[in-house]
Amino acid sequence: MSKIKGQNFRLLQNAAAIPEATNCSITLQGNSEDTSTKDTEGLFTQETIVSTQWSAQVDTYQSETSALRSIISTFIAAQPVAVSWDQTAGAQNRVVQNANFKRSGNALLNDFTMTFNDRETVQLSLQFQGTGALS
Amino acid sequence: MQKGQYIRLLLSTTANPSTVIAAAKQMALHGSAQTEDSSTKDTTGDALEYEVTGQSYDITGSGLVLTPNDTLLTGAVGLNDFETWVKDQLLYWRICVMEGTNNRTVVEEIAHGQGKLTNLQISAPNKQNATYNYTLNGYGAIVPGTDE
After folding, report:
1. Chain A: nearest CA to B16, how far in angstroms?
2. What is the ipTM of this complex?
3. Which residue in A has a C-alpha nearest to residue B39's C-alpha?
4. Distance of CA B27 to the CA centre of its chain
5. Chain A nearest CA to B111, separation (Å)
6. pLDDT > 70: what percent of chain B?
7. Range B91-100 average pLDDT
8. What is the pTM for the complete model shown?
9. Using CA atoms, how far apart are residues B9 and B21, in angstroms rounded to an integer?
10. Beta pairing partners, A131
11. DSSP letters along chain B, please?
12. Could you report the per-residue pLDDT of A60-80, keeping only the tens digit for each?
């Protein structure tokens, strides 16, 4: 069995790995519609995927205040940014592998939380709402 | 790694506040965008296309309740100020990196803006410090700080 460790999957924004990440995830969603009709026998629904959407989320520690300002600027701009998800290796796990798992698309930064707690490292949580297809 | 105690919220009823919240424990800035599916019959494929139609943010935090004559309250914001401000009072805020004695000297600004205190809760559990939690809802845009 050849397992892939979580540290070898990274979320990239504009082709650069989002630094100091501790966790990231990507979610694909198919929005379904019950297409059962009076012709359908029995009580069960018949779901049909009518549209798809995706989102990505990343949690990081953050040591650079310039990066915090950049996040705020990206949020205010309200414009799509290039987001990708890839298998990585090498120094700081920043060498993208363009592996079978690579996914990329455009997304809006639609939610962020910066946490500044006493005696704790600054933490940042970002959520991207995909716009258009994920390739 | 940047530590949370060096990043503080400064609050005032006047612009460019220089007064920190005394005895603060926690603080978070949370931005949220309302998005709307803007795909139409002209859109190729099944994937939805979104656009941002609104933005909002809030700042939440907590701190310890100090006695009114505590020296840490000199030139700082405390519970009395919060109680005064939980109304339709427009406040100016800054989030800054701080240093020096009691972490009161501004090094650089991360962001600033305006907001209103919409929630204040005071908790006084037995055998524990009395604390307060607050929520400040953003009024208008967040403005990122500029590079030094």
Report:
1. 18
2. 0.87
3. A132
4. 7
5. 7
6. 99
7. 97
8. 0.90
9. 6
10. A106
11. --BGGGEEEEEESSSS--PBBTTEEEEEEEEEEEEEE---TTS-SSB--EEEEEEEEEEEEEEEPPPTT-GGGTTSB-HHHHHHHTTT--EEEEEEEEETGGG-EEEEEEEEEEEEEEEEEEE--TTS--EEEEEEEE-S--EE----
12. 998 889 999 999 999 999 999
- The CA-atom distances, in angstroms, between B25 and each of B5, B28, B61, B73 are 8, 11, 7, 15
**Chain B nearest-CA residue for A112:** B31
A4-25 per-position pLDDT tens digit: 889 999 999 999 999 999 999 9
| Furthest C-alpha separation in chain B | 67
Residue B107 has a CB neighbour count (10 Å cut-off) of 14
B25: left (phi over 0), alpha (psi -120 to 50) or beta: alpha
Structure tokens belonging to residue B60: 């939440």
Length of chain A: 135
B97 touches chain A (CB under 8 A): yes
Contact at 8 Å (CB) between B96 and B112?
no
A122:B55 CB<8 A: no
